[in-house]
Write a structure and sequence with these properties.
Keywords: DNA-binding. By secondary structure, this protein is mainly alpha-helical. The protein is built from three helices and no strands. It has a domain at 10-78.
């Protein structure tokens, strides 16, 4: 958002902004996945790594104090993640609620 005409003024504007931001995040994730598959086809990834891609989750969460993020219950259950497990996170900023 660069000028006053881009500032959401009502529920429809907020919904439109949310939808556009979500679509951008999905496109970014798809691009990343395509790049990873491309690396796999050229010898950058082996089949074990490709199989591990099927055990992934995509979700949005808010950064908490100290930079902490939470994995939703449904995602932890689906991926059998328990306290103390080590996981890898790929972070893509979706929206910023601050003046820059």
């Amino acid at each position: 958002m660069t000028d006053d005409s881009d500032v959401p003024t009502g529920p429809q504007d907020f919904f439109k902004m949310f939808t556009e931001t979500s679509e951008q995040a999905v496109e970014t994730q798809q691009d990343l996945f395509r790049q990873m598959l491309g690396a796999g086809m050229s010898g950058g990834m082996d089949m074990n790594q490709l199989g591990a891609m099927s055990q992934t989750a995509t979700f949005k969460t808010r950064v908490q104090s100290g930079g902490r993020i939470s994995i939703p219950d449904a995602e932890r259950e689906a991926l059998d993640i328990e306290e103390g497990d080590i996981v890898q996170a790929v972070v893509v900023p979706v929206k910023r609620d601050r003046d820059e």
